[in-house]
Amino acid sequence: MRSNHPLFGIVLILGYTICSAIAYILVKHVFLISPEISPINAIFWGFLGATILVASTIGSQKKEREHAQQEWHDHKKLIISISILTSLGVLLWAWSLQLASAGSVGLIGKSDVLITLVLGAVFLGEKFTMHSIIGAIVALGGLFLIANLPNEISFLVVGIVILMRFLYAMQSFLVKKSGQKLRGISFTFWRILIMTFFLFLTTLVTGTLKVPSLPILLFLFGSQIFGAYVGRVCYFEAHKYLGIGHINLLTLAQPVILLLGTWILLNEPMPAQKLMGAGMLLFGLSLIVIEKSELNKKFSLLRIFATLRGKKNDIENPVDLS
User: Fold this and answer.
1) Which of 148, 186, 293, 319 could bridge to 71 as Cys pair (CB 3.0-4.6 Å)?
2) What's the pLDDT score for residue 60?
3) Is 60 strand, coil or helix?
C-alpha cells in the first residue's frame, strides 16, 4: 500500500538532491580530465545513456508502455515544448560547469528564488516584506562573495546560470494546467528522448559530434542517468507528498551536499570566502522561502504570466519539472 506520509516526500527530495550532486560531480570530472570535449557533445552522450536506460525500463513492461503511449497522446505539445526549453537550459548548465567550479555553479543555481521574488514585485506589484528584504540583501551579499571567488567563477558564469534558471522556471508555467496529471516515469521518458534528439541535431549543426573514450562515455552516461532520470522522477513524485513551499525549502540542501561532494571528490578549494558566501546565500534564501510558505505568497512565474494573459485567478499548484 502506498504511503501518503510527508516523510516519504522528504526521502524523495533527499534522493533528488543526492542524484543532482552526482550529476554535477560526474560532468565536472569529465571536463577536468577531458577539457577538449564540448558542452554540447558531453550533454548529448549523457542524455543518450539516460534514454537507453529509460527506454529499456519502459519497453520491458507492458503497463509502462501503455502509460507512455497515453502520456504522449494526452500531453505531446506540452512534452515537446518543455523538452526543447530544457535542452537549452541544460546546455547552459554544461557550459557553466566547463567555465567554473561545480560547487559555485550549484550555489548560484539557487538564485531562482531571488529571480521569482523580483519578477513578482515588478510584474505583479507584490510588496516586499521585511523578511524578504532582509533575506534578499543577505543572499545578494553571499552571491557577490561567491561571484568574486578567484579562479572559480566569473560574472559571465553568474549570468549564464541565472538565464538557465529562468528557462527552468518557465516550465512551471507550461505545466500549470496539467502538471498534476502527468505520470512521472512516462513524462520523464518522453522528455529525455526528445531532448536527446534535439541535442543530437545540435551537435550535427555545430559540428561538435565526437565519440568520447569509453571511460568518459560511462561518466557521462552515469551523470544523466542520475540527474535527468532518477533524480527527476524523485523530484516529480515528491510533489504528491509535499507542498511546493516545503519542497523549495528542502532543496536548499542541494548546494550543501554538492559543496561537500566536490570538496571531497574533486578537491575543489573551500576558502573562507566561499563558506561565508554559501552561508549568507542559503540563509537569505531560507528567509525568503519560509516567508513565502507561511504567507502563501506565490512569487512565481505562474502569476506573472497569468497576469500578462489577463487571468490573475487562473493559478493552480505549480509542478517544477526542471
Assistant:
1) 186
2) 81
3) coil
